Amino acid sequence: MRRHDVIIIGSGSGNSLLTPEYDQLDVGLIDGGTFGGTCINVGCIPTKMYVYPAEVAQSGRELGRLGVTVGPADVDWPAIRDRIFGRIDAISAGGLEYRKSLSNVTVYQEYAHFTGPKTLVTASGEELTAPVIVVASGSRVTVPRIPGIDLSQVHTSDTVMRLPSLPERIVIVGGGYIAAEFAHVFHGLGSRVTQLNRSTRLLRSHDAEIAERFRECASSQWDLQLGWAPEAITDNGDGSVTVRSSGRDENGQESTREDVADIVLMATGRRPNTDLLNPSAADLAVDPGSGLLRVDEYQRVLATDGSVLEGVWALGDVSSPSQLKHVANHEARVVAHNALHPDELVASDHRYIPSAVFTHPEIAAVGMTEEQAREWADRHGTRITMKSQAFGDVAYGWAMEDRTGICKVIADGATGELLGAHLIGPHSSILIQPLIQAMSFGLGAHEMARGQYWIHPSLAEVVENALLGLELD
Ligand SMILES: Cc1cc2nc3c(=O)[nH]c(=O)nc-3n(C[C@H](O)[C@H](O)[C@H](O)COP(=O)(O)OP(=O)(O)OC[C@H]3O[C@@H](n4cnc5c(N)ncnc54)[C@H](O)[C@@H]3O)c2cc1C
Ligand SMILES: NC(=O)c1ccc[n+]([C@@H]2O[C@H](COP(=O)([O-])OP(=O)(O)OC[C@H]3O[C@@H](n4cnc5c(N)ncnc54)[C@H](O)[C@@H]3O)[C@@H](O)[C@H]2O)c1
């Protein structure tokens, strides 16, 4: 049995654990997939490298309302793809080589699972042990096992970005982040997009007003079909496929529909990689509903009886209900400290986790939705105040002729404490940052609005005006 001081399972956020404090320790870093994990290889980074050119192309098409006409975009998909993966694949390969070059780190390029409380075996049979084990094994794509799901034209986010050419017609299944961002990418670059979603709501975790506004924007851009569940995909023999779905027609009658496409993208969610770990061998508690590893606020993994498993830590998608890279990064910093300083534990801060959806327009959110805030106010015997400020009613939004953007802020009417912020509109992922800052540091709505200058006539005035629109006691 090979003994290490620390074993890390997963080279995504797990790889960033290795701060200088770990230089003197014998570390085993295990990853059976592509080195670097989801974000760099198949997640945040390549998707946003596609979102940007799609956004530029789409914005170009909309310049007519400003009195500017540009010609149709000539999109060179292979050039975009090769530029993106030329950079990304090199980062993964370079990161792997660097880790392998370190005398204190042993990299195992294979999957591993637990055989006992502190013991693991790799796929090739190598047995490993360490007093400190960090589980950072992430999540993976999940697709419904419908007939035709294994056809070569059917893709997931893992493969669709490497297509040989831009598809003329693409069907995207799902109504979450991944479906939304890829619908924007393919529509922006010029494919004919049909989005099929099982429920009648898009972006279900978002504030209902924002989700509804996004539904309107999406349906004005591509063919959005809500309330349809795909049941089978068949090969038409000419390179195309047909997706058959069941649902209800506009009269509410049970019905079926068929959509022909060159490519189908299944964006139907991700599941934590707990099942690959043989968690019962180490008595790791797994949440039965979500499949997430159960951890306490210090990221210590819990045993099935609810007690703490000393020396076993988890972070990121394998244990967090928020599958976001900034959450995994935060938890990695917490684990990097706690694993070496178990007598000075710091807790993860999960109070105000923001998120952004990189669509056209962008969406960004932090804190409670309106629905959650109303429930919160009922429980606490207080009232909430809200303001939805239109981007088009501040000077820069006016200059942009923006017709859809809103900045919605929600606060406790009695104290001015900010409870939530929800934006849809250009640059929302940037505009929300001062609101995240205010919530994180306890700055009230009025102090935030009046305690500083707001550059005129910047788009940030939409945040200022939203705050000033709140009716505080
Ligand atoms: C298409 C897409 C776009 C995204 N865009 C964004 C975004 O814009 N912003 C954002 O915040 N988040 C985004 N995310 C989510 C973000 O990528 C993840 O939340 C984050 O990367 C999770 O990091 P992690 O370290 O927990 O897991 P990962 O990065 O997935 O790392 C886990 C690693 O563990 C390895 N592994 C798994 N099981 C084992 C085992 N048994 N033995 C050995 N190795 C194992 C895997 O091969 C993998 O490399 C996106 C995700 C996707 C799929
Ligand atoms: N910008 C970002 O931060 C970003 C971008 C992409 C992904 N992500 C992360 O990745 C995670 C996974 O994204 P996702 O969009 O795959 O998941 P999701 O859970 O957000 O959405 C999954 C969608 O698939 C639908 N669905 C599930 N099973 C189905 C079935 N059998 N038939 C039809 N539809 C079905 C669901 O109704 C839902 O609309 C997200 O939760 C998010 O945290 C983040």
Give a quick set of tags describing it:
FAD/NAD(P)-binding domain, binds flavin-adenine dinucleotide, 473 residues, 3 domains, alpha/beta, binds nicotinamide-adenine-dinucleotide, Enolase-like, domain 1
Give a short overview.
Residues 4-329 form the FAD/NAD(P)-binding domain. With 473 residues, this protein is of the alpha/beta class.
Describe the structure in your own words.
This protein is α/β, with parallel strands linked by helices and 473 residues long. The protein has three domains: 2-139 and 271-340, FAD/NAD(P)-binding domain (3-Layer(bba) Sandwich); 154-268, FAD/NAD(P)-binding domain (3-Layer(bba) Sandwich); 361-468, 2-Layer Sandwich (Enolase-like, domain 1). The chain is 29% helix and 25% strand. The strands form six sheets. A six-stranded mixed β-sheet has the order 4-3-2-8-20-19. It is globular, with a radius of gyration of 24 Å. The mean pLDDT is 97. Bound molecules: flavin-adenine dinucleotide (FAD) and nicotinamide-adenine-dinucleotide. Flavin-adenine dinucleotide binds next to helix 1, helix 2, strand 5 and helix 6. Nicotinamide-adenine-dinucleotide binds at residues 144, 173-179, 181, 197-199, 229-230, 267-270, 323-324, 355-358. Residues 353-466 form the Pyridine nucleotide-disulphide oxidoreductase dimerisation domain. Residues 246-256 have a biased composition (Basic and acidic residues). Residues 4-329 form the FAD/NAD(P)-binding domain.
